[in-house]
Structure formats: C-alpha cells, structure tokens
Predict the 3D structure of the following.
Amino acid sequence: MTDQTAIIASAEALLDKEGFSATGMDRLTRAAGVSSRTLYKHVGGRAALIAGTLDARSERFLAAMPRDGVDGLFRALGEWVEAQGAHGCFFLRALGEAGAGEPAIGDRVATHKEAMAALIANCVAADLGEADIVLADQILVLFEGATHAAVYRGTNVVEAARQAATTLVEAARHSAERTNG
C-alpha cells in the first residue's frame, strides 16, 4: 500500500467515525502514522485529503452495490451498514461539515450522488424491463433515508426500506401488466 493510499484509508476511517469538523490535521496525521510533511507531500491539504477519501469511499461503495435489481441493492446497503457502521451518508456529511466553499469536495459529492442515481435507475430498469424515472427517484429517497435513519433507529430500518422498495417495484410491475395486458 502506497503512502497516499494508506493515508487516505486511515483518514476515511477516522473521518467516518469522528466527523469532518471535529477532526483536525494533527489528528489525521497521527492516525496515518506519518509526519505532517509526509501527509502534505502525498495528499496535499485538508480539502485534497477529504476529496481523496471521497474518491476512495465512492469507489468502494459503488463496487459493493449490485446492479441486478432493487432488492439486492438494499441487501447490499444492509451489509454495508452492518460492516461499516451507521454514521449516515459519508458524502453529505463531508459536504455539510467541510464542503462549504470547497469545490473539490462539492464536485466529488455531486459525482457520487449522480452515480448512485444512475445505479438505482439501472436496478429499477433491471426489475421492470424498462426505465421508470419516477420509481427510481422513489427508490433513491428510500435508499438515502435508510442510510440516515439507521444512525438513530438502528440498522433494521434498512430492511424496512427494502420491504417498502419491494412494494413499490411490485406495484409498478402490476401497473405495467394492466397497461400492457
């Protein structure tokens, strides 16, 4: 693992656990086990480090999400929350706590959220055999809501959101059958 990769991995874990506002560069340096000079050499300043953690997190998160249907998407979210902990959306927390006035952070958050919307739209299309933008938006709201509600309600809300998503997908299937049949 390169110094940059190790620094970003340690920063991601620390920022996810302790938050962006509460975690200073000295704490990030200690967590990475490097000098501040090494940290700045490999990742740049605070905004660049946060942008790097967002890139790494997005890559890992999107790789963990299946593309073959809505049910699998929520099952994967449940597994992610169980393994990583329920801290809310890493990206929205970064934007809210550290992103004001930092285009690199805002751009990464927007890119990740667009990728998630596209992924969900593809899962909906896989389930229905056709695109349904309204249903994809509804599923997106359930997905985002489950991510946040797990913080204060526990991880069982992901299962509740999965069940609600299944109900919506089934209703859309039945509606399409009535229209086409």
